[in-house]
Amino acid sequence: MKQNRIFTVSVIIILSTNAFADDTNEAVKTKDMMASLQNNYLPTVERTISDFSSERQQMIADLLNVFKDAKSSNLSQCAAGYCLGEIRASEAADTLASKITLELDLSKYPIDHFPICAGTPILQALVKIGNPSFPAVIRNLEESDDIQVRDLSLKVLYRIDGDKDIVQLRLQKALKAEKDPQKQARIQAAIKSLRESRSPY
């Protein structure tokens, strides 16, 4: 199945820096794509761009399906989330933010190194996606009382902007636009937490 093939390739990318060293088919496909982009024939170039865009959209859809599927393993979900960040899939921001606390359960795997998708893969993905993540993580701050969700969402905001003052301005703008008193209180709590934090996020 194409979904399984794409996801398997994505997991291989994550788990091995030399994933495609012996994959002749992938090497040929990439080589062909680059050649078609350099052949100076507009219809071929346009077709290649269109094919690339279509494949990217299909990969995003497949990764999101794995990420959202309750039957997917913890590793599969973490890897899918990480990959969505690697390809800067802005359309995945809402879905990723809804599971921002997801972490790889290392107790299930015999490992001799720290996997690239360990730690906080969803936070990392949202940071890589950048500005399109703002509405989703601000929504987390407005709607969630979960301390970990709020902390990670605030970290995403800070790591994208890299400046507490800018993050505070974003939160104040969200506060001004919000009419619900409970959501306002949560945003104010986030602003207070940001101000009181002594170390950068």
Describe this entry's structure for a reader.
With 201 residues, the chain is mostly helical. The chain is built from 10 helices and no strands. The longest helix has 27 residues, at 42-68.
What is the 3D form?
A: globular
Structure classification: mainly alpha
| Parts with pLDDT < 50 across at least 5 consecutive residues | 1-22
As a percent range, the share of strand residues is: under 5%
Gap from first CA to last CA: 41 Å
Instruction: Give the rounded overall mean pLDDT.
Output: 83
Helix-strand sequence: HHHHHHHHHH
Counting DSSP H or I runs of 4 or more residues, the number of helices is 10
Summary tags:
single chain, 201 residues, mainly alpha, globular
Secondary structure layout:
Elements: H1 2-15, H2 24-37, H3 42-68, H4 74-86, H5 93-97, H6 121-129, H7 134-143, H8 147-161, H9 164-177, H10 181-196
Helix pairs in contact: 1-3, 1-4, 3-4, 4-6, 6-8, 7-8, 7-10, 9-10
Outline of the structure:
With 201 residues, the chain is mainly alpha-helical. The protein has helices at 2-15, 24-37, 42-68, 74-86, 93-97, 121-129, 134-143, 147-161, 164-177, 181-196.
